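FIELD: query
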Amino acid sequence: MISIYKYELSFDHIQTIRCRVVKILTIQIQSGRPVAWIMISDQVEERDINIIISLTGENIESLYKNYFYIATIQDPPFVYHWFTDFLNP
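FIELD: result
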């Protein structure tokens, strides 16, 4: 079975989610907190996915080479750019 689950995140620079990920759909702000919507499947092995945040203007050279872009969120006065080590199909 494939479902979409919501995972609450924090504004920590690096965080890990353990799930049966098929695809990361998006990250948005809900009630003032970042949340990820992730498509999961009981047919897929559970694994850790790392999520990294970068603020506008930060050096992202290592992120650009090793991680994949998920989303950009504006939460004034900050703009957050979210990346992951999981490659969406």
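FIELD: remark
The first helix runs from residue 61 to 66.
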